[in-house]
Hints:
By secondary structure, this protein is of the alpha/beta class. The protein has two domains: 5-18 and 110-245, HAD superfamily/HAD-like (Rossmann fold), CATH 3.40.50.1000; 19-109. The protein has eleven helices and eight strands. The chain has helices at 24-36, 44-63, 77-86, 93-107, 117-126, 139-149, 151-154, 161-164, 171-181, 195-203, 237-245, and strands spanning 5-8, 15-19, 108-113, 130-135, 157-160, 188-192, 208-213, 230-233. The chain has a six-stranded parallel beta sheet, sandwiched between helices. A two-stranded antiparallel sheet has the order 2-3. Strand 6 (188-192), helix 10 and strand 7 form a beta-alpha-beta unit. Helix 1 packs across helix 2 (44-63), helix 2 crosses helix 3 and helix 5 runs parallel beside helix 11. Its cofactor is Mg(2+).
Amino acid sequence: MRYEVVLFDLYGTLIDIHTDEQAAKPWQELWEFLDATGAHYDDAAHLKASFDQLNAVNVQEARKGAEHPDWVEPDVLPVFQRLYAAGGSMASPQLAAKAAWVFRKASTSKFGLYPGALEMLGKLREAGIRTVLASNAQACYTRPEIEVTGLNKALDRIVISSEEGMRKPSPKFFLRALEYEYTTPDRALMVGNEERCDIQGAASVGIDGVYLHTAISRQDDPEICEQAVLSLNGADYGALTAFVLGE
Length: 247
């Protein structure tokens, strides 16, 4: 079998999702949660302004001096901790994570696995192929979602950009995932729904890519990716499985 490890993007590849962090609801619910747990702001608007300022500083500090600033992924969890401090309280990482999850749930209007995702992962694992998540995401949002969907039991390894401090399409991100799996680019496959981050990023280190053009792919992404070894319309897991297993 050609591939021993398949790397998967998450959102738009395994999970169908829509979030809006600029809507009023998530900030109102976060304000209520913080107020009930000791951090006080005049209203949700003041809370959002404080978050935006703290987050901008967090990003600036993380990207300072980086050769490719856009490839750096700072962890947002400390921002939630600093929100407590700015609101006159202190928060453990556990409490900050609860606040982050309140915000994430309130900002999400659509969420669920694409049909057949777990079954597809199961078939690959039954064939002896390692399944690895390789996602640009914030762990404080994504790890609870992985558990809710059951993906934590369907994946052999989880690699999240905020925990690595780097994001796709950084070549170092892909190489890090391969190092964790003790494998080489020619034995790995990347499956994702974004041409630049997933397919071109993987190709930069010699990893083949399967491109899934889903409804939440970038608007400027093509329906067919020329650099991919296979392009599929939507989350066509049947065709993906057949390709990987050589059927």
